[in-house]
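Single Protein Entry

Contents — chain, fold
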Amino acid sequence: MFGKLGGLAIRQQSVRQYATLKEVEMRLKSIKNIEKITKTMKIVASTRLSKAEKAKNTAKVFDSADGQFYKNAETKASEQGEKELVIAITSDKGLCGSIHSQLAKAVRRHLENAPDADVVAIGDKIKTQLLRTHASNVKMAVSGIGKEAPTFLESAAIAEQLLGLGAGSYPKISIFYNDPVSSISFEPRVKPVYSAETIVESPGYSKFEIDADAKVPIDLFEYTLANKILTAMAEGYAAEISARRNAMDNASKNAGDMINRYSILYNRTRQAVITNELVDIITGASSLD
């Protein structure tokens, strides 16, 4: 009895080993549709890249002017083991390779040395990845990022939310973002934001004639926070658009290779079907004779 069941199971497993002509045709059609989508997304990313580069260059102008002040004042970030605020900036969109996961890895490596640091995730992608491993560190998340090129109004609104969270009380603030090294590569980087106390304690702060009652260090800290967020968002946006264009280009090439392979398989399967039909016709005709 069991021998018969075993033989039946073997026969059922070897009933079909080849795809039918209809299945190959449907598979080929779906791959062609995917290729059309990836090519379209590559074209869209290419058109947005020039706008992203313009936004990045504009933000760098303000960032360089801001950095010149801290260079003359000889301001340095605090290296002591104090409470730190980590701001991780990506976007809400995917289909751009490993750009989000690479930044998440950089933030996780940093949190290994600063396990008590508070994290603000700007962008749904970085928020989702950090919540998997460091949910207790994430204190706030901002979504709706990366749909268009960032503006100062957008970064100022985020900075206002951070100030409401108490960003001014942190002695050390670090911003993690993706830097577009070239058109085909990017690298996670970190830039500091100096607190008002750090600005006042700068060795070269006395070079400037600043009214002590005007709360200039606080205003300068708030402006720098918004300006650094804008620069990080602009550079991250440019890196993301470039990565998406490269990812869609690779996807289009892979789809083209699959189309070639499935076209050959389709033609061979079609020829086999025609041959089998001819054999059936000839066999039927010969049996009548």
Summary: The longest strand covers residues 172-179.
